[in-house]
Input
Amino acid sequence: MQTQSKLDWGILIALLLPIITALPTLGDGIVAGADVGVHVQRIHAITLSLQEGVIYPRWISYFHLGYGYPIFNFYAPLSAYITALLEVTGLHIVTAYNVVQTVAWSFGSLGMYLLARRFFPMHIAIVATALWAFAPSRLYEVWWQGSLAQIVAASFMPYLLIGVLKNSETPSLRRILAIALPYAALIMTHTPMMYITTLYAAPLAFFAPIYFAKTDYKAIFRRWGFIGSGFLLGIGLSTIFLMPTLLELQYVQISEGLQETIPFLREQFLPIGEIFTLPPLIDRTDQYLVFPRTLGLVGGVLSLFGIGALIWKRRYGLLIACVAGLGFTVYMLLDVSFDVWLLIPAFENLRFPARLLRMGAILVALLGSASLLLIPQKYQIHATVIALLLVISQVLPISAPYDDRVNYPNISAYDEFLQEQSARTWGTVSYNEFNPIWGERIFLDAPTNALRYIDEPFHLRVFGRDIAATNWQGLTEENITDNRLRVTTDEARAVRFRQYYFPGWQATVNGERAEIYPDEQVGLITIDLPAGEHIVELNYVGTPVQLIATVISWISVIICIGLYYFGKFDRAKDNSDDSTLSVRVAIGLIVLIVSIALLNDRLIQPNNWLSTQSAPTEPRNMANRVDAMFGEQITLLGYTLHDNTISRDSTLNIDLYWHVPEAISDNYRPIVQLVSLSQDQAFATSSNLQPAAGEFSTMQADRYATDPYTLRLFDTDIPPYVGQIMVQLVNNEGTLLLADGSDRLILEPIIRIDTPSDVINPTWDTPYKIGSSFATLLCATIEQTDTSYDITLGWQLDNAPRENLVVMVQGLDENGELIASGDALPFDGNYPAWFWDIGQTLYDSQSLPLNDSISEIAVGLYIRETVTRLSVTLNGEPVANNQILLDLEEQSCQP
Output
């Protein structure tokens, strides 16, 4: 009989689990995720501020190319602040970044374990922890996004749910902190993750007390009170950030900076097949990391069994909460939820539906681990090991998807200038949304002598263009300290400084407080100086709102200390499962985890055992070859088309595969459109500023680049025709031509457009049948203009013939003689007969030249190649000459 240990081995195992996928992230540099650069610069900015004695920096004067930026007044600073504290203590910023990322991974893993322990035995909670720690979306977050703030924020999410559950079961003063602290941490770390977590925690906070208190209404209100106090205290703790963010948002151009938010959001929804898919093997020749945003196939399958287990065990409370939460998550990830995104206040500003995968991972972890309840208890330990191996094996192929690292051997403010110019992340944000509102324009010029910022990152200067101006030769400046300048002017004038105006700036001239104001052109800090030499000092001292917010946060800290102290005698019982693991099993699991981690880091990943490597011109996942050369510079190797239909509710997804045979310096913007067969109309388009793998000038000859596109139908009325995909490469100089001189490449596949048919209301009692059930003419309307007869024909398509059909339109005189002909392809040639979809009702527009001799118009259909008319019948009887005669006043198609 195995000895049971009272030690909660699960805590140690939960902390260790992430090392399997965290070890490959540790090395010479930081993994080159998309947002790593901006987070590193934010961290270093706080480090430099702390070294200058600024405890809570809001305005970073050297951001935005030395014009200054209110980054930490509007961007939650906690993750950068924690990392900066490590850098201040002497750790290199790369080491500090990797430490915080890894610790956050383990801290969140522990939170998931503690949450699962409230429902399950220790071994099942360990499986839940693995499902959370190794959700493929978490590796996407680390290797693709590189958002340290989001990674850290995700680690707080389980703790907030624990706090809500604790206070729903047995509230206490100290347990208020279990809500307040993680909620404040979420607010201070990442605003979108806070918003998402609140969206789930709020319903839980409402229904959980009802569930636990049953019909004790007094207890329900008491628990609601404790829970509400926790959320309010969390807001109070974070008021130092939250209050200025909300009240001073009026001073930045956030709405102008996010004009493309809604169109961008529409492009970011996930296909249903991606949410629970198995991550593919990485092709190391591909410059684009094909990294699915998924909760994983293993988690999805286990969740289905978990639902059955919870039903069997009658754990209905947990079942309803998890299924409802996961159902809402999946719904919000799909484009059918677009209107709901717009309905929730400011929710569209989250921009990326995939952010909800962080909460989805918690729900899948709980449901998936519950599947072990189906296993007889004596076999559950064995099932735990098998489940762990399945979960881990799912992510090993993507645990080190590439080798690119970024390093910062001698990081300085100057590196921020270089990054802003190269990545266009002005002020370390992607959308330039926090520009001050003053001034008519934003300058994007680098400061002169930018290298000076290496040693003097916070030095201020007079606006260089003013000093360089020919009519300002009498103006000179000299820095005494970073923020104190000796300014000499030969005449009274308004002196502008290279720093954006923003509330909170103060100035003194020769020791006396001076008025500052923004100049009208650029919005720079401006001071009126009389002639002579002056000592000007500029300081960012903050606003009254910022001061009040700081006081509120400090008061909240004191309240937290009081709750902890006075709540220490509260004997509220923790309802977590009290099961344990044997020492042998616990040590065995630890050895297993460490062994897999070392094996993965030392053998599997270095030797690329779980990845592939295609030839540079033979992409492994490419389904169709094209080999089209654009401008003798860029080759479209081929494409993979994931769909052959598009509708209002579904997108068209295509992956292009680019190759650059030799290095080029020019860059081009790919434009992918779904166009009509005649190429005179576009039904959908998708275009990025550059391919997904980066600009063409960065592509290597020994690699190819996958470039995915998602096309969505325009909001205008799109007929249910067919179309083809058109590809172009353009830049400011024009369109890059193909070898045949064409400016566009039309791909072969025919795409069906699945939109509603026209609603036709005919007045004819009996329609005309044409051909052997090919089509039915339901009605016709003729409008006379100054030059023509415009004819609208209402067709019902009954079959799809193999032949190419032509609409016969003939003007006849009173003797039935032909006067004029307007024969043309149906539907302007954009919907050939062999593509007709049975049962469609469509209007077709035709035209006939005006002629006074025309007394009636004959219509019909004939085969183009043989000019053979199709038979026409009315009530089953043949119609003479297989033609339908229409009076010039025909109006049988009613709107």
Notes: The chain has a mean pLDDT of 92. The radius of gyration is 34 Å.
